[in-house]
Structures are given as structure tokens and as C-alpha cells.
Design brief:
The complex is a heterodimer. Chain A is mainly beta. Chain A is built from no helices and 11 strands. In chain A, strands 2, 4, 5, 6, 9, 10 and 11 form a 7-stranded mixed β-sheet that branches. Chain A has a 4-stranded antiparallel β-sheet with strand order 1-3-8-7, with no helix packed on it. In chain A, a hairpin with a 5-residue loop joins strand 5 and strand 6. The model of chain A has no long low-confidence stretch (mean pLDDT about 90). Chain B starts with a strand and ends with a strand. In chain B, the strands form 2 sheets. In chain B, strands 2, 4, 5, 9, 10 and 11 form a 6-stranded mixed β-sheet that branches. In chain B, strands 1-3-8-7-6 form a 5-stranded antiparallel β-sheet, with no helix packed on it. Chain B is mainly β. Chain B is built from no helices and 11 strands. The mean pLDDT of chain B is about 95. In chain B, strand 7 and strand 8 form a beta hairpin. The chains are: A mainly beta, B mainly beta. At the A-B interface, strand 5 and strand 9 of A face strand 5 and strand 10 of B.
Chain lengths: ~120, ~110
């Protein structure tokens, strides 16, 4: 089946530093990748939609200058949290989708837990 | 705008008992509906989905769900719970005009007692 990986699985950083999270589709080409944020015991909130070769589309309320998304290839998207602060601590999950239809399945990565001290 | 409401943030059943997780949605266009399962510190795995056609959808691990347009519901059921079913379950909605964006419900934590 389709596999999506994320790296790193956990990261701890100091306040003010930047952190990059990678999302890779291992055995398929993903035309679209999505980035979600999940707080403890809460649902997933979509942050942005990323299409290969074009700028990401951010959801309302998500700071595009703080959460930089790059989708340079059909198998890799990156999320960079710039100048991280403790309130950015969260579980970040990416998903990847083949095709362009809304009913095409999204395959989710295992998530990255970010802790900002 | 679309939305999803999952009734009950926590459901507890005994092993072998019926599992029923409730999901109601709101959508101004025909919805695509999904159920995902999440184990601790992991990503989401698709259990089943409804797009068009048969309203009773069968998924993995013995789960099934029925799309009821008149009730705007998509409840998830399993006849007999296993200990391994203990996890967080999310209902989600999308549609053809949402670019594939999934709107998730709040999640329901399922506990299975021996």
C-alpha cells in the first residue's frame, strides 16, 4: 500500500530557532500534500494544501511566513516552522494524495511531535 | 461550509459488544464521507469511505458505515469489539468542490474493556 513517511518523528528545539519537517511519499507520486496540526486530545486542523511546483494554499488564520511549506517534487514536501515559540508545540501530520479528485484517498504520515522549550 | 459533529468524545464497550460511533455532517453539496482511525502517536489510517453509490460501506477490520442523507449521518459500527480496536476515531467530510480538503470531527476515543 501507499506509504508516507515523516522525519523527524520527534524534535525538541529552543525558542527562536527554526525547525524543518519532511514529508515523503515512498512508493507513489503525490500531486497534492496536506499539512495538519493536532493538539492533544483534539482533532486535526488543516494548515495548508501543497501542490507540487506551486505555492501552498494556507487556511485562514495560519501564518504563511511562520509556517513555510515547500513542495519541490512529487514525493517530498517540507514544513519549516520559523522562529518557533512554545505555543507552536504540537503534533504535525502530513498527508499525500494521488490524483486530483476529492475522493482520492489521502495517505497520512506518522506525524512529528514538536516541542519548543 | 462543511462541518462534522461526532457525538461522544469517549465511548467504552466490552470486548465482543457492538461498537457504534456517531457522526453527523453538514454540507450544501453531496458529501464524501470518511472514517479514520488513529493509534497513539501515529498518523491516520482510512477505515472506509463513501463517495457515491451503495450507502452501506464496508471497511477494514470488520467496520462498516451507512450513509443516511435524510439524517445527515454516517455512523460507524462493528458487530463485535476487539481489544485491538481501542483507538481514536475521526469522521471527516469533503466534496468535489473542496479541492480534496478534509474537515474532521472532534474525534471519539474508543475504549474496549476485557
Amino acid at each position: 500500500g501507499a506509504v508516507v513517511s515523516q522525519h523527524p518523528s520527534r524534535v525538541i528545539c529552543k525558542s527562536g530557532t527554526s525547525v524543518k519537517i519532511e514529508c515523503r511519499s515512498l512508493d507513489f507520486q503525490a500531486t497534492t500534500m496536506f499539512w495538519y496540526r493536532q493538539f492533544p486530545k483534539q482533532s486535526l486542523m488543516l494548515m495548508a494544501t501543497s501542490n507540487e511546483g506551486s505555492k501552498a494554499t494556507y487556511e485562514q488564520g495560519v501564518e504563511k511566513d511562520k509556517f513555510l511549506i515547500n513542495h519541490a517534487s512529487l514525493t517530498l514536501s517540507t514544513l519549516t516552522v520559523t522562529s518557533a515559540h512554545p505555543e507552536d508545540s504540537s503534533f504535525y501530520i502530513c498527508s499525500a494524495r494521488t490524483g486530483t479528485s476529492a475522493y482520492n484517498e489521502q495517505f497520512f504520515g506518522p506525524g512529528t511531535r514538536l516541542t519548543v522549550l | 461550509a462543511q462541518s462534522v459533529t461526532q457525538l461522544g468524545s469517549h465511548v467504552s464497550v466490552s470486548e465482543g459488544a457492538l461498537v457504534l460511533l456517531r457522526c453527523n455532517y453538514s454540507s450544501s453539496v453531496p458529501p464524501y464521507l470518511f472514517w479514520y482511525v488513529q493509534y497513539p502517536n501515529q498518523g491516520l489510517q482510512l477505515l472506509l469511505k463513501y463517495t457515491t453509490g451503495a450507502t452501506l460501506v464496508k471497511g477494514i477490520n470488520g467496520f462498516e458505515a451507512e450513509f443516511k442523507k435524510s439524517e445527515t449521518s454516517f455512523h460507524l459500527t462493528k458487530p463485535s469489539a476487539h481489544m485491538s480496536d481501542a483507538a481514536e476515531y475521526f469522521c471527516a467530510v469533503s466534496s468535489y468542490n473542496q479541492g480534496g480538503k478534509l474537515i474532521f470531527g472532534q474525534g471519539t476515543e474508543l475504549s474496549v474493556k476485557p
